[in-house]
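Structure Section — protein described below
Tokens — whole-number codes for backbone shape
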Amino acid sequence: MRVLFASLASVGHTYPLIPLAIAARDAGHEVHFAAGADVHPPLAANGLRPFRPADSFYEVYAEDLEPELARLRPDLVVHEWGLPGAAVAAARAGIPGIWHGFGRAIPEGIGLESPTGNTEAPGRPHVDICPPSLQDKDFLATEHRIVLRPVPFSTPAALPTWSGRHDSKPLIYLTLGTAFGTAELLTVAIEGLAGLDARVVVAAGRVGPEQLGEVPDNVIVRAWVPQAQLLPYVDVVVHHGGSGTTLGALTVGAPQLFLPQGADQFANADAVSAAGAGLRLLADEVSADAVAEQVRKLLPQAGPAGHRDAAGAIAEEIAAMPSPDEVARRLPEYTERG
């Protein structure tokens, strides 16, 4: 079977699809991946045959993909929630398609079209990687879902020197993602975390590490950190609330402090906080002291176990969800042309 995956050319939109694409490849299917060139290296490294439709860089429109569908003639198109053009192109070509989610159902007003309201490609199933206890209840009740365990993915690399070692001090991971971070917010968060009896690893993302100046000895700053490799060692995650980091932290049962900035981050912060697995600080609440106070509540042996227990319960829920290999074996079921 030939399967075409398609995504926006960003880490947050491409990486959630990679585990299923790899599993489909391992199941013996021929896999191709349509996306802008910025995300081609990890796709190529995993044998996923990336290509850039037409002259697309970030977005892929239906008109970009239609000639490629005629060329490849895939049996199935798996298109992520941020790429309605791929759904439309597949529907016009009469090719079965599956939406692939990256977290909770897309909330209104974040600049992305809701896939559940797409009138040109209605009735298509959704690969849902959000644990049901956190998913939007209307989405759970009304959509055809293919449940898939979220599997953190990042390009393999060496971890910072001491971040992967178990020692007496807890490990805090700080990231504001690749699109929303600012030097001002990172500096405030680092100041608060540095005063705790813990080690801190910072992924600076779009902020150059040099913009943060000198940091204390218990803080390591890197432009980029292999998040999937780091998470199993982490005790607390402080972050912006992006879906990838939110779900990644939950897979290892790490409680989270959210500093939401935009997009779906506020909805993620609300859902995890309501579940008891994290805390949040809004922009007008953020200070070094506030960050330290909230994280202190989440550290092991430093506060009530409720947040850690709630995060651990969600981790168990995630572990019980079907694996990418299980879902990949079922993909031929979705190739019936309507």
In short: The mean pLDDT is 93. Residues 171-319 form a domain with the Rossmann fold fold (CATH 3.40.50.2000).
